[in-house]
What we know:
Elements (H helix, E strand, L loop, with lengths): L9 H6 L2 H54 L18 H13 L3
Amino acid sequence: MSTQKTQPPWEFLFSASPFTLHSYELSRLNHAANLRKEMTRLLDQWLEENACAMLARWLIEQRERSVREEALGAKPGETASPGSPALDSASDNFLAESSRSREPA
C-alpha cells in the first residue's frame, strides 16, 4: 500500500465552475469511502490473524502445562494445589496476590 501526500489543485479549484467543484467533491468523497472500506477490510484481517496467533499461544501453553503436570505426577487437567510454584505462571501469581489483598481480614 503506497502512501501519497495529496495537495489540492488550488489553481484548478479556484477557476472551476460550481458543477466541476461538485464533481471534484464527489470524486474525493468516493475515494475516501474506498479507502475506508480497504482500511476496514485490513483491520478485520489484522484482528483475525491476531486471534489465530492467540489461539496458537493458548494451545502451546496448555500443552506445556500438561507436560509439567505429568512430570509432577498430577493427572492432566487436575488442578495443582495453590502455591505450587512449578504450576503457577506469572499471571497466576499476580491474580492470586490480587485476590488475597481483596479478602477481608
